[in-house]
Amino acid sequence: MSALSLAARDSSTMLRRNLLHARRYPSLTLNLLLTPVVMLLLFVYVFGDVMSAGMGGADRAAYIAYVVPGILMMTVGGTVVGTAVSVSNDMSEGIIARFRTMAIHRPSILVGHVVGSVLQCLMSVLLVGAVAVAIGFRSTDATALEWLAAFGLTALIALALTWIAVGMGLVSPNAEAASNNALPLVVLPLISSAFVPIDAMPGWFQPIAEYQPFTPAIETLRGLLLGTEIGHNGWLAVAWCAGLTVLGYFWSKATFDRDPS
User: Fold this and answer.
1) Smallest Cα–Cα separation from 188: which of 42, 38, 29, 81?
2) Residue 212 has what pLDDT?
3) CA quadruple 116, 117, 120, 126: dihedral positive or negative?
4) What is the DSSP string of 142-209?
């Protein structure tokens, strides 16, 4: 077998391992999935009328259309926290030390985590999206091409954040530290344009919400799902995805290749 075939085989084996872990221990995934669902229901049914009134008198249906793309991005950010915890557990429990002694393609260990996490992110987004549709979200103006682009953007965001989460897991001494280190991936969507437009925020706070990766991704996803203009946000979102993917990949690879102390 060629080196590429061996790498693909080992990566597939590690992917199956991580998916089996997720299936046998679903509590972490379910807990992370519950948060965006609760946030969606909270902002629609508890704060929906107040929030929509502050957006030019829009009704609750219009606010559902506005808030769902942000909740979907929050779902991605929350799901990858589980990846950081899983990687940290592997590093601290000794299985990685065992893998280092075996004749396997070493990067396949990380690839298994990354691909498994991206698949879990997409499944979580689909489940949260189903809840959104059940409570009234509609995307009647989006074309099939825009739906495909929205799916591709979600996958890119999941890939970028997963590599960052893998790096956080590798540098964390235990699962608790990994969860804390990955907390910004959950907090950043809260201070983006997910729940209110940036123009409605205080002037001093607007740069914080605008110049971060989640805001252009949310605005792009919102435009694609609702069939509205995305402006320059599309290019910004792709640029953020590419930059974070490259940063996370080299950070994770350098940390993983470092000889254990």
Assistant:
1) 81
2) 93
3) negative
4) --HHHHHHHHHHHHHHHHHHHHHHHHHHHH-SSHHHHHHHTTHHHHHHHTTTSSS-GGGS-TTTHHHH
Instruction: Report pLDDT for 163.
Output: 95
Rounded average pLDDT over 169-179: 90
Those residues whose C-beta lies under 8 Å from the C-beta of residue 117, and which sit 6 or more positions away, are 18, 79, 80, 82, 83, 158, 162, 165, 166
Would the pLDDT of 128 be above 90? yes
